[in-house]
Structures are given as structure tokens and as C-alpha cells.
Amino acid sequence: MNRPEKERKTERSFGMVQPNDSTKNPPLKTSNMAVIGDRDSIMPFKAVGMKVVPVVDAQEAAQAFDSLVNAKYVVIFVTERVAVEIGERIEAIALKTLPSVVLIPDNRGSLGLATEKVRQTVSKAIGADIFRGGDK
């Protein structure tokens, strides 16, 4: 067996995904994703096939979030301002594999919540806060 054939055989034996092999790693469908937030901030997501759920208060946001979780959405984007209102619900599912909840800024800008969440996760994982720079 020549070398390239042997390498391909070895790659396949370890279950590595080959280029153009969509059976092992199918593309993520936007129909499995949803976004919750104020209407002006989330409507553009509809253009790419996501379910958009506009909300105006904490009660609507909580109901929408619970509904999307129960409907088995894979990814739920939540604007940061809405996340402030339903933080307990988001934290309650944080340790589950799915759905993945991603905080995003709204059309008024970021509150810094998403960045802070990433900082906390990385700090916990590696035992150091690499985002703080030289602060002591």
C-alpha cells in the first residue's frame, strides 16, 4: 500500500471527518435556532431562517424562553437586556448540553454581559483571568 492510501485509511479509522463528508458532521440548520429580544434588534435574524420571538417585558421573555427550551431548539440567542430579566432561567439550563444560550447585544449596544460570561468561563477552565491584562 502506498503512503497516501495508508494515511487516508488511518484517518478514516480514527473517525476523522473528510472534506465534503456531510454525513459525519451535518451543517447546523438555522431552523434549529431562535432569537429572543426586542423587535428591532432581532428581526434581521428572520432573514436567515431563524425563529424570532419579539418580547416587550420580563414575563413575555420568560414564557418565550421556556417555550423554546421545551421545543428543543439547539441554539437560543438572547439579547443582553432580555437576559438581565431572565437570568435565573438561563443559569438553570447552563450546565445542560443543549440548548446553547448565546447572549448578543441589541440595537442599542452591548452591556458587556456576553464578554463577562466568556471571561468567567475561561477563568474557571484555566484557573487564571487572562482578560484582565496587568490589573492586580
Give an account of the 3D structure.
This protein is an alpha/beta fold. The protein has one domain: Rossmann fold. It has 6 helices and 4 strands, in the order αβαβαβααβα. The protein has helices at 3-13, 39-46, 58-70, 80-85, 87-92, 113-126, and strands at residues 33-37, 51-54, 75-79, 100-104. It has a 4-stranded parallel beta sheet, sandwiched between helices. β1, α2 and β2 form a beta-alpha-beta unit. The longest helix has 14 residues, at 113-126. The chain is globular. Mean pLDDT is 81; it is low at 10-18.
What key phrases describe this protein's structure?
136 residues, alpha/beta, 43% helix
As a whole number of angstroms, the C-alpha radius of gyration is: 20 Å
Order of helices and strands: HEHEHEHHEH
Estimated structural class = alpha/beta
Poorly predicted runs: 10-18
The percent range for strand residues is: 5-15%
Helix count? Answer: 6
Number of strands: 4
State the separation between the terminal residues, measured CA to CA. Answer: 59 Å
CATH architecture heading: 3-Layer(aba) Sandwich
Biggest β-sheet description: 4 strands, parallel
- How would you sum up the global shape? globular
What's the arrangement of strands in the largest beta sheet? 2-1-3-4
**Corresponding CATH superfamily:** ATPase, V1 complex, subunit F
Average pLDDT value? 81
In percent, how helical is the residue content? 40-55%
Per CATH, the class reads Alpha Beta
Count of domain modules: 1
What is the fold named in CATH at topology level? Answer: Rossmann fold
